[in-house]
Amino acid sequence: EVQLVQSGAEVKKPGESLKISCKASGYIYGTYWIAWVRQMPGKGLEWMGIIYPGDSDTKYSPSFQGQVTISVDKSITTAYLQWSSLKASDTAMYFCVRRRGTLVRGSLSYYFDYWGQGTLVTVSS
Amino acid sequence: DIQLTQSPSFLSASVGDRVTITCRASQGISSYLAWYQQKPGKAPKLLIYAASTLQSGVPSRFSGSGSGTGFALTISSLQPEDFATYYCLQLNSYPLTFGGGTKVEIK
Prior knowledge:
The structure holds 2 protein chains of 2 kinds. By secondary structure, chain A is an all-beta fold.
C-alpha cells in the first residue's frame, strides 16, 4: 500500500528555521516525483515545487523560489521542505504528494495520486 | 504561467441535483487537467485525471470533460458526502497551477 507520512505539527517563531519531512513507502521510491503543496488557512491549494528522488532534479514555483528548499534522501525514501527564516505568512498546512504518469489515449498524462496527511506549520511570536 | 479560473467559487445545491463546475485555462493545456475533492481538515482526493478519466474507486456519478482551455466536472446526482471543495489542477507545464476552488454547500 502506497503511503506518504508527514512529520507532525510545528509551532515556530519568526526568523527560526524549520525542516518538515514526508516519508514514502509501498512503491519504488526513485521513480515518482514528489511535490509540495501549500494551503494557507481558509484558502486554496498552491503548488510550491517538485523533486525527482532518482537524481534530485528540482523545480520550483516562481512564488516559492528562494523562499524554501526542497530536498530528498533517497536512502530513507524521505522528502523534505525547509525554511531558513520563517515568517508569519508561512503559517499554513503543507502537503506532500506523489506525481504519477499514466498513458491515456496515447499520451502520458500526469496527476497527483497519493497525498500525505499534511503538516500544520504555525509561525507566531 | 497558466492561470486556471474556476466557476462558480461557491455553489449551493440539494441532494440529487446535477452540478457542473467549470475550469478555464489561460492557454491551451490539451487534456493535462485533474480534478480533486477536499473536505475540511483532510488532504485532497483525486477524482479525475487526463480531463475525463475517472480515478479507480471514484463513484461514476463524477465525470470530467473538455480539452484545450475549457473543462468541466459534473456530478450527476449530488450525494450528502459530495459536499466539499473542488479544485482543478493543470499539469501541462511548470509552474503547475490550481484553480481557486469551488465550495459546494447544502441548500
